[in-house]
Design a protein that fits this description.
Number of domains: 1
Largest sheet: 7 strands, mixed
CATH architecture: 3-Layer(aba) Sandwich
Strand content: 25-35%
Number of helices: 5
Structural class: alpha+beta
CATH superfamily: Gcn5-related N-acetyltransferase (GNAT)
Distance between the termini: 29 Å
CATH topology: Aminopeptidase
Strand order of the largest sheet: 1-2-3-4-5-7-6
Helix content: 25-40%
Length: 172
């Protein structure tokens, strides 16, 4: 199984938008109203928003390819790009999005490890992420990968406030 990673550029904006909407919708549409899903997708993944995020030097997006096909992506943030003020010694994994037909191939673990490599290369002491409190499969996965629940923050899906657990892993 050939897995490769490629840093996203502005030429990738449309593909990034497409994968973002597809994977987020596939994952969360059954637990949220169509109105809230539509509002969130339009706000979070419009081209201007993604361009703004891609322009931020403290954020990086990476596509993951399985057998030369884009299978998903991940996004990491440092410094003021983090969605919570966690300090300069931390790296946030804001998104790990894998297309449905590429799940169960170990890509999530691969991307999580890649994000931790990036953190270590940047001499970060901790890696953290937010995960929806009702996403039990993801929570179990992150715990297996050494993350612990250290807090929570609000996440707005349209007009509905939801709770994300903050999970953190200390790097050696």
């Amino acid at each position: 199984m050939t897995i490769t990673i490629k840093k996203c550029t502005f030429e990738d904006l449309r593909k990034l938008q497409e994968i973002s909407c597809e994977t987020f919708n596939d994952t969360f549409k059954d637990q949220n109203s169509p109105e809230n899903m539509k509002a969130y997708l339009e706000r979070a993944f419009n081209i201007k928003q993604l361009e703004k995020e891609l322009s931020n030097s403290s954020s990086e997006f990476f596509f993951v390819y399985l057998k030369n096909e884009v299978a998903g992506y991940f996004k990491v943030n440092t410094n003021d790009a983090q969605s919570e003020p966690m300090g300069e010694e931390t790296l946030e994994i804001e998104r790990i999005y894998i297309k449905n037909n590429f799940q169960k191939h170990g890509l999530g673990k691969y991307l999580l490890n890649k994000a931790m490599e990036i953190a270590m290369e940047q001499s970060k002491k901790k890696v953290w992420l937010g995960v929806w409190e009702n996403n039990e499969n993801a929570i179990v996965f992150y715990k297996k990968m050494g993350f612990v629940h250290t807090g929570s923050h609000s996440f707005y899906m349209g007009d509905e406030e939801q709770m994300d657990l903050i999970m953190t892993k200390t790097l050696l």
